[in-house]
Fold these 2 entries.
Entry 1:
Amino acid sequence: MARGGWWRGMLARMSATEGTTKPRAAAAAAAAAAVRPGPIERADLVVVGAGIVGLAHAVHAVERGLSVVVVERDDAAVGASIRNFGHGCVTAQTGPALRCARRARADWLRLAGEAGYWAAESGTVVAARAEDELAVLREFAERAPLPVRLLDAGGVRALVPLDAPELLGGAYLAGDVRVNPREAVPAIAAHLARSGVRFLWRTSALGWADGRLLTSRGTVEAPRIVAAVGHDVDRLLPELAEDVGVRRCALQMLRVDSPGGRRFAPAVLTGLSLLRYSGFAACPSIPALRARFAATAPHLLEADLNLMFTQWPDGLLTIGDTHARAVTHPPFHDEALDSLLLAEIARLLGVPSLAVRERWRGVYATGPEEFLVHRPEPGVAVVAVTTGIGMTTAFGLAHEIVETLT
């Protein structure tokens, strides 16, 4: 049957199912199965999405001896998984996120050797430039799940070459890790392919029912299905996205030359970062810190700025990041936000300006909880990290999901 005829037949059958109690994803799969019978692939598990959450599920499934097919609409991962700092911020997590982050840390380091990408156990330095920031760090050090070493200004500069004149001190979070996501994510995909995972690139998932995933190339049969499509969960399950409040968080980020070729082994966080992570949230001094920013620098809170940076082996600094939340974002880049980022990082480094090499917009799923795990039917899991901690937690979360499917 010609492609156009196939789609017309599928749409006709989808229309016939409207008004029934079947979920839209199941209705699409059932309609198409009658038009194009016979699977194009069979596996123990099919994963939708080749970002880090999807790949993490494939990794743990293969380790359990399952055969795996990964379906990805692009010909490489180009979403949130490669548009980030590559920072595993383990120490600043709490609850289930901390449990997942601990597991993920070990997986990142183990897979670096197996898949052949760079990874560093270099920790994180939090630079404090105000007394209330130091107060939060002292409180956090008393309750942190991993070692935290408090530092004076000299101790901070001994670890990272910051020249901010207002630097008072900080803390070193030794348990954090770093990777270059642009290298690590494709390396993991290649490693999985060598391990027997079949990738269907440039293939869109359209729905599922009764152990079958409908794709734009045909049906994949699998008793287990994981949909790890991140911020695009509303493309498959719009009612779910609406019910749980999943939207898209858009970020503005840049890569800049490191002034004078300075080297930074740890990631660098700042006082604004203390307002973002759950591990700091319970510190008694957090309300005063937020109030001070609201009074003295409200524009930083309006931009929802997490002022931080990392350095990859090429020497450039990845800096960021601003945050804006919406179901659909306008396609226009706000130069004022980039200028704000550049000015604040330059101030932290103690330099007049920075040379920009790249600019981009990041995006991730955001919701009221840290994770979205939805099970619409037996054997099917819709999984997303709905805060900006996907690189930190994905492997641990996937380990737990795969356990429940086997």
Entry 2:
Amino acid sequence: MRSIAAGVRSTGAEDRIGTKATEDRSKLLFRAMHRNSPKDTSRWWTIQRGAGPILATAIHDGHELRAEVGDIMRLSAGERLREEDPFTGQAIVDVPTHIIAHRSRFEFDLNRARDEAVYLTSEQSWGLDLWSEQPSPGLVERSLASHAAYYEMLGQVLHAVAAQHERFVLIDVHSYNHRRDGPDGAATPQEKAPDINIGTFSMPREQWAFLLDPLMEAMRGFDFNGRKLDVRENVAFQGKGEQTRFVHESHPGRGCAIALEFKKFFMDEWTGVPDPQELQAMRAFISFTAKTAERLLQ
């Protein structure tokens, strides 16, 4: 398998993540969330290309900002982290082909169309007051250039996978908040907030039922640290993101993109502190899901 980092040399460390390494990464990110100016702004995303018809992505895992964005960003690192999807990147490293984004969605959101990929107003960003001054047109265009580069890269990866396999699956991994009323507020009721939300809005659902229905049933049967997860479809989210739309429109009938959202039960969404055992179970869960999807494609 090959590992390629856009704008930075890969160290291969992700392949060596064990329990201790995961705990160390958790502690580092917890400390990093209190810093407003991330230092490493050179990398965009990391790509690992391997065998098989399954891809996984973590496009909201990123926390980094380039300097000109960070200079006018009013939000603290902790406030940004709350709306990002931390630790989804570590969850997908066992899928042979995977892509992990390193730039924050507050620089450019890879799951929104170009005209909404840079948040300019609070209405676009959960009511948050983002900027100390309005981003210049030049700054916005530079952010959008990175957004375009991602989809150019993704198109090339999908083309290469499709050249080798009649059908393929992209698992689009995210996470979502369920304690929006504050650290001491009530959580969203379980009936409205499944542990795993599967979004299928842009998917030709009947065409892929042969895969998705047994795949979700397998997810429900997975032993997640001694418990079974509540896995449901289109409850908290419907999977209306740009990436799943891109896959289905660019490879109709051949590419199936599944938006998979973990509820943030694996961390304290207000402090940013994760549970290392839950992180390990997330990684095992995604590996199991990818292997099951590959079997169902055969």
